[in-house]
Amino acid sequence: MRSLRGILLLVIVAMVSACTGKPVKTYEGAALPDKDVAILTASDNIEVIEIDGTEMTTYLLSNIETMYALKPGKHRIVFNYTSVWSVAPKGQDGPRSEAVESPAQVVEIEVKAGDSLSFEFDDVENIREARAFAERFTANLVDSQGNVLGASDLYVKQVEQEMGEQVAVAGVQAGQLESKAAGLPPLEAMKVIWEGASTEDKKAFLKWAFK
């Protein structure tokens, strides 16, 4: 019977073969020939998380080379730096490796058919440098001539925008309630507003009323 380590090695080899083959298609429809797309190569510890809002498959190994086929046009790419280093174990059962990851970065680029793109960033020599580097990580996307097509920024999910939209909806609803209550006797107006109030608003009102 094969050992667990042997099986794991076979799985890793299969994954590497799959990842270093043909480019990952990032668009809908039939696959286009290489001459009609731009090829983005993610290597040297770059993990592509998302392209144009679609999550990309992430792989076990951080130092494999993965290629992505992009249609000509504008693209938004979310990625991060990741690396794995050997460390001295603390105790008999302590981990012998440590993964270092940066916060996600985002870059927007415009590409043409036939472009070859890659990530450009500083190199590190050891885990101490990697930890410090991950905290301030940024990268450029460059073409085959080394021209910078885009520089990355810290990726922040649009939570604030979503919260703003929710507040806007709540404001519209409040305005509608006020319109319905306008002209009614005070007691009836309060009933209309109470029925349309959220649970949190009702709790806040009761807390205020019974101070």
Question: What structural keywords apply?
Answer:
211 residues; alpha+beta; 2 domains; six-stranded mixed beta sheet; 5 helices; extended
Description:
The chain has 211 residues and is α+β, with helices and mostly antiparallel strands. The protein has 2 domains: 4-154, no CATH class; 159-209. The protein is 33% helix and 28% strand. It contains 5 helices and 12 strands. It has helices at residues 4-19, 127-135, 159-181, 186-196, 199-209; strands at residues 24-25, 38-42, 46-51, 54-55, 66-70, 73-86, 97-101, 105-111, 116-120, 140-142, 148-151, 153-154. The strands form 2 sheets. A 6-stranded mixed β-sheet has the order 1-5-2-9-10-11, with no helix packed on it. Strand 10 (140-142) and strand 11 form a beta hairpin. Helix 3 (159-181) packs antiparallel against helix 4 (186-196).
- Secondary-structure class: alpha+beta
Q: Helix and strand succession?
A: HEEEEEEEEEHEEEHHH
Poorly predicted tracts of residues: 1-14
* Proportion in β-strands: 25-35%
Strand order of the largest sheet: 1-5-2-9-10-11
Q: What sort of overall outline do the alpha carbons produce when their principal axes are compared?
A: extended
Largest sheet: 6 strands, mixed
Distance N to C terminus? 74 Å
Provide mean pLDDT, rounded. 79
Number of domains: 2
User: Count of helical segments?
Assistant: 5
